[in-house]
Every structure is written in C-alpha cells, then in structure tokens.
Amino acid sequence: MIKINIDKVPRWIFDLEPDDLAFVKNFILHSGSLKEIAKLYDVSYPTVRLRLDKLIQKIQLSSRKKEEPFITFIKGLAVDSKLDLETAKGIIEKYNSEKRDAAT
C-alpha cells in the first residue's frame, strides 16, 4: 500500500466538489472521450464540453495562489453559475475600491 503525503496533493484537488471529482474520474476512465462522457451522463456533447470548461476554470482559479481568497471565492461562484459574471465583477471592483480607500 502506498501512502500519500497530504502536503504533496495539489490544492486544486481539495477545492473541487465531489461531483467534479467524479467527473474527473469518469473522464480519465473513458480516456478523455467527451462523447463517452456524454453517453454516460445522458447529456449532449456541448453540455459535457461546457462542464469541462468550467472545471478547467475552477482549477485555474484554484492554482492562483497570489490572489486573495475572497476574490477567488467570488470568481468561483461565477464559474459555478451561482453568480452572474457582471455581479461578480461588481463585487470584486467594490471590494478592491474599499481596500484602496482603507489603505489611504
């Protein structure tokens, strides 16, 4: 049995939801075939492509360590379609504005 050092596991793995991890597992098990994933989930190819694109965005967001956690959180909500993009931008702009005002 191989033991995994939890410190060596990339942060983005922990930031994924259980259904995202299941999607990644199925993607690997089906050799990355979006057609096979579409059949498995009984959805259209474009739906699978959109899901994969959102997953890619989540991983990219999680990989940005320099970005403040609040901003990453807001962007993650937008990627998950829990918040529309314009609202997310507005929240981030307001947050950055208040931070600048507090610093002066």
List keywords for this structure.
mainly alpha, 104 residues, 71% helix
Describe this structure in words.
The protein has 104 residues and is an all-alpha fold. It folds into two domains: 54 residues; 39 residues, no CATH class. The chain is 71% helix and 0% strand. Helix 4 packs antiparallel against helix 5. The longest helix has 19 residues. The N and C termini lie far apart (56 Å). The mean pLDDT is 86.
Secondary-structure element series: HHHHHH
Round the Cα radius of gyration to an integer and report it. Answer: 17 Å
Largest β sheet strand count, sense and barrel closure: none
Average the pLDDT over all residues and give the rounded result.
Answer: 86
Helices, by number, come to 6
Number of domains: 2
Tell me the distance between the termini: 56 Å
Helix fraction bin: over 70%
Quick one: how many beta strands? 0
Strand composition percent? under 5%
**Which stretches are poorly predicted, pLDDT < 50 over at least 5 residues?**
none
Question: Shape from CA axes?
Answer: flat
Structural class: mainly alpha
